[in-house]
Amino acid sequence: MAQSLVRAACLTHYAEVAQASGLNPLRMLLDVQLSPHVLDEPDLMIPVDKVARLLQDSANRSGNESFGLCMASSRLLSNLGPVGLLIRDQQTLRDSLNLLVRYLATLNSALSLVIEEAGDTVVLRERLLSGRAGEPTRQRVELAMGVMVRVIRQLIGRDWQPQRVYFEHAAPQDGRMHARMFGLRVAFNQAFNGIVCTKADLDTRNEFADPAMIRYAQKLLDFAPPADESHILDDVRRTILLLLPSGRCTIEQVSEHMGVMPRTIQRRLTEQGQTFSCAMNDIRQQLALRYVLESKRSLAEIADLLGFTAASSFSRWYQSQFGCSAKASRAKPVRHSLHAPSESLALAA
């Protein structure tokens, strides 16, 4: 399967934050097998799994729990390349975010963004396609959420504040950086990672929108190489990730979401030696390990998040996948790694 990739621009300000945290940035990059030159080539596509290890290792070695947020704190739309130019000059924030959803895979093929509206409330849900089983995702999530808030502020005003911000992971010991970035309404140990705003925010007009710049940015994107059909598996997995909690994650639902016929998905997956059921099971394995080992959610809640109709069904599935119960995994997480899915089955993110 093709590796999940991200623009090297995701490492903008990495060297500065690493040095401020007492680290040698070049040594850290080499330790995860990334060339230091990636810091000078923002359009280079690099493996997401290596970026994930770099961020987590940097946070662990420096003791800076907010390492990802520190990197996000000075991000600009220009860091998104042509996509940043395109979304900058849209008429409203809604138009900009819809385009970001459309082109997100060209920036980071392991990140999904969904915009949900209910009355006057809007939720921007961000989900990561996880890589190694049980690998912490705090730094990647906080970097992505911080960048999203920075993007919105550059589009509709630097004083903008989210109504609320939710994180799946636990609260840090020191929450000052989170308060500085997101305000005081930040909640941890939640069911999803997301930013809550209002419908009025989405409809805010961009008085500086420039149609001529839109045409220029669109041409830059149009000249980009077309997506390889081999990426269909990544697209399917990304959609499964979004639909699992609904309990209606079938190939028919996924195909409708992607705008592709079910038989087309089946054919392309078969060409890569994969099936829809295996792809969905892989996602469940990765999420199950994350929820069981990294969160304090009840097993019943985890069952719901993974799309199981009952906690007992989840328990039987977990036992069959990992050779031990979820309760035993939670009690002895270190030993559980012996039963983690092989890297060949995991998403490279």
How does this model look, in words?
The protein is 51% helix and 9% strand. The chain is α+β, with helices and mostly antiparallel strands. It has 2 domains: 208 residues, H-NOX domain, CATH 3.90.1520.10; 111 residues, Orthogonal Bundle (Arc Repressor Mutant, subunit A). The strands form 2 sheets. Strands 3-4-7-5-6 form a 5-stranded mixed β-sheet, with helices on both faces. A two-stranded antiparallel ribbon has the order 1-2. Strand 5, helix 8 and strand 6 form a beta-alpha-beta unit. The protein is globular, with a radius of gyration of 20 Å.
Task: Note the main attributes of this structure.
349 residues; alpha+beta; H-NOX domain; Arc Repressor Mutant, subunit A; five-stranded mixed β-sheet; two-stranded antiparallel sheet; 7 strands; globular
Topology, pairings included?
Blueprint: E1 5-7, H1 14-20, H2 25-31, E2 45-47, H3 48-62, H4 67-72, H5 82-88, H6 93-107, E3 111-118, E4 121-128, H7 138-156, E5 164-166, H8 176-182, E6 186-187, E7 194-198, H9 199-202, H10 211-222, H11 232-243, H12 251-258, H13 262-271, H14 276-294, H15 299-305, H16 311-322, H17 326-331, H18 333-336
Parallel strand pairs: 5-6
Antiparallel strand pairs: 1-2, 3-4, 4-7, 5-7
